[in-house]
Automatic annotation (TrEMBL), chain A:
It comes from the Eukaryota. The lineage of its organism: Eukaryota, Fungi, Dikarya, Ascomycota, Saccharomycotina. GO terms for biological process: endoplasmic reticulum to Golgi vesicle-mediated transport. This is Trafficking protein particle complex subunit. Its main location: endoplasmic reticulum. One of its GO terms (cellular component) is TRAPPI protein complex. Pfam families: Sybindin (PF04099). InterPro entries: Longin-like_dom_sf (IPR011012), TRAPPC (IPR007233). Part of the multisubunit transport protein particle (TRAPP) complex.
Automatic annotation (TrEMBL), chain B:
One of its GO terms (biological process) is macroautophagy. It comes from Kuraishia capsulata CBS 1993. GO terms for cellular component: endoplasmic reticulum; Golgi apparatus; TRAPP complex. This is Trafficking protein particle complex subunit BET3. SUPFAM superfamilies: Ligand-binding domain in the NO signalling and Golgi transport.
From TrEMBL, chain C:
It holds the Pfam family TRAPP. This is Trafficking protein particle complex subunit 6B. It comes from the Eukaryota. Signal peptide: none annotated. PANTHER family: GEO08327P1 (PTHR12817:SF0), TRAFFICKING PROTEIN PARTICLE COMPLEX SUBUNIT 6B (PTHR12817). Transmembrane segments: none annotated. Belongs to the TRAPP small subunits family. BET3 subfamily. One of its GO terms (biological process) is endoplasmic reticulum to Golgi vesicle-mediated transport. It comes from Kuraishia capsulata CBS 1993. SUPFAM superfamilies: Ligand-binding domain in the NO signalling and Golgi transport.
Length: 147, 188, 224
């Protein structure tokens, strides 16, 4: 399994969505760990990395960073939404996937969804099932998914 | 910078935007305003408030559509914001480009030569509407909502409206504060 | 081509040359439902003597910086989650009447747009076809998928993928989605009723979600 998880943070620094893909676990891992330490640490790390990259060069934008065990692909929209995809460190650039998730899944199932908030309160998450199904469909059909 | 914004918005409008007849839009909006006035007993202050609130909610969503299609990042200055709002924002949604006047780091004004919301509209002749109703107040809300999503808290309001007999339709936007990027509680 | 022909074409096409982004219309229509709910609430609050608050407070109060609510406005769906507002009969009435008003005005505009001199829509069936083809195409970028009638005043119009509700998904699950989407359906019912009335046909219009996002509009005319 080369793609581990997807995390979405909003401009209020809340984790509004998380999706973990785990072969072994039979339960659905959607929005399970949003308030846990992992999410907070991830956000903190990204926040710091963004600051460092901005300090090094004004026009800089964080794209991804890797450690021994994983690579984090990052996308931030003008509206402050932060998309983080955690994958195998050897995986190539996944910006196209993050773009697709934003422009097609997020816009269709959150923005165009009259029953979904677009500005989330603390603790609110994206609970729309079609949103998760669409993301799954995009991710699972990638060749890199089951390596 | 201006040239590339124009190219971007021209390209968007021609190739990536689904279009609908503007009369249909004008008619729908007009019907809404007329009915609001009746329902709220011609209390124009209330009508303005409801239009603004509706616009605010629309703005919160339109701004995501904006970023999804343009892939622009946040502007560096308030001046830049004014340019992008007028040249790209208004163009891609309403197919008009208002003039940007009176720009500085704290405010700008948009002068609309064309207003799709108000084509062929006449305000009711009850002596009050001319002084109290801001017909296109939904735009005020849209700007407030959209700019808040990019961390800019603004005050927006109409200064003049041709429907009221003024020479121009002018919308003023004033920066109240730049909202700070939040970090989770407990971190520093 | 003579100059006079060109002039007529330009004048005729002038009104219809102007366009706006479909999203503007989509979101405007989508937001009329929360607007109707808010207006109903405002009116009922003021008649009960409850001070109307919230509508005007779009400014962040410097004296109360910790007021969380002001930062998290959740895009307007609060009123949709307010069950008392939704179940108020006045809400349904208001949503339907917003649609009705738009429908009456739409009919006039559309007849004008379509007038090529050969327009014959006096028969109820023709009117229904007009709604299925022209009206729906204009409002929802597609035609109605099916039209059935029992030839004695009842018509059923079916849209297999109704655009107003097709992207709806409640975080509380499918039953909740259906409940709230049904509320939205009063709006197009009103539009249809308004158009029919404008064209001389009195009818009652109800909608039902047969299988999400497929919707069937049930029209009962006062004819035998």
């Amino acid at each position: 399994m080369a793609i581990y998880s997807l995390w979405i943070f909003d401009r209020h620094s809340n984790c509004i969505y998380s999706r973990e893909w785990d072969n072994k676990s039979k339960s659905s891992l959607v929005n399970v760990n949003n308030a846990k330490d992992t999410a907070k640490l991830l956000f903190g790390t990204i926040f710091s990395m963004k600051n460092i990259s901005q300090n090094l060069s004004k026009q800089n934008k964080l794209k991804s960073f890797s450690t021994l065990r994983f690579k984090c692909h990052f996308k931030e929209t003008g509206s402050g939404l932060k998309f983080c995809l955690l994958t195998d460190p050897e995986l190539e650039d996944m910006q196209f996937l993050l773009d697709e998730i934003y422009t097609s899944c997020y816009v269709n199932h959150v923005v165009k969804n009259a029953l979904s908030p677009v500005d989330f309160r603390a603790g609110q998450v994206i609970g729309s099932e079609p949103f998760t199904s669409d993301i799954d469909r995009l991710v699972v059909t990638l060749p890199s998914f089951s390596t | 910078m201006s040239k590339s914004l124009k190219t971007l918005s021209d390209d968007l409008w021609k190739n990536r935007v689904e279009k609908v007849n503007s009369e249909l839009f004008t008619l729908t909006y007009g019907s809404l305003v007329a009915q609001l006035c009746r329902d709220l007993n011609y209390n124009y202050a209330e009508v303005n408030a409801h239009l603004e609130k509706m616009g605010y909610n629309i703005g919160l969503r339109l701004v995501e559509e904006f970023f999804a299609q343009t892939n622009l990042g946040r502007c560096q200055t308030f001046r830049e914001t004014a340019e992008v709002v007028a040249k790209v924002g208004f163009r891609m949604f309403l197919n008009v480009v208002p003039q940007v006047v009176g720009v500085d780091e704290k405010q700008f004004s948009l002068v609309l030569d064309e207003n799709p919301l108000a084509e062929f509209v006449e305000l009711p002749d009850d002596g009050k509407a001319f002084k109290e109703l801001w017909y296109s107040n939904v735009l005020v809300g849209v700007l407030k909502g959209a700019l808040e999503m990019v961390q800019l808290e603004v005050n927006a309001f109409f200064v003049s409206d041709v429907l009221r007999g003024d020479d121009t339709t002018e919308l003023k936007v004033k920066l109240v504060q730049v909202l700070k990027d939040e970090i989770p509680v407990g971190e520093d | 081509m003579s100059t006079s022909n060109v002039a007529v074409n330009e004048a005729g096409n002038d009104l219809f040359r102007k366009e706006v982004n479909t999203l503007c219309l989509d979101y405007l229509l989508m937001e009329t439902i929360p607007l109707s709910l808010r207006v109903t609430k405002t009116l009922s609050d003021s008649s009960k003597g409850v001070p109307t608050q919230g509508i005007r407070q779009l400014k962040i109060d410097p004296k109360k910086p910790e007021e969380e609510d002001l930062l998290f406005r959740s895009g307007g769906i609060d009123i949709l989650l307010d069950d008392t507002a939704i179940q108020d009969e006045n809400s349904i009435f208001r949503i339907e009447s917003y649609g009705y008003e738009i429908g009456t005005k739409l009919a006039d505009c559309l007849i004008y747009m379509k007038s090529d001199g050969n327009l014959q829509i006096s028969q109820p069936l023709d009117i229904m076809k007009f709604i299925c083809r022209d009206v729906w195409k204009l409002l929802y970028s597609k035609q109605m998928d099916n039209l059935r009638t029992n030839h004695s005043g009842t018509f059923v119009l079916i849209d297999h993928n109704f655009r107003l509700i097709s992207n709806m998904a409640s975080p509380l699950g499918d039953p909740d989605t259906l409940k709230r989407a049904s509320l939205y359906l009063w709006f197009p019912c009103g539009i249809i009723r308004g158009i029919l009335f404008s064209l001389g046909l009195e009818a009652s219009v109800h909608a039902e979600i047969t299988q999400f996002p497929s919707v069937s509009f049930n029209i009962q005319t006062n004819q035998s």
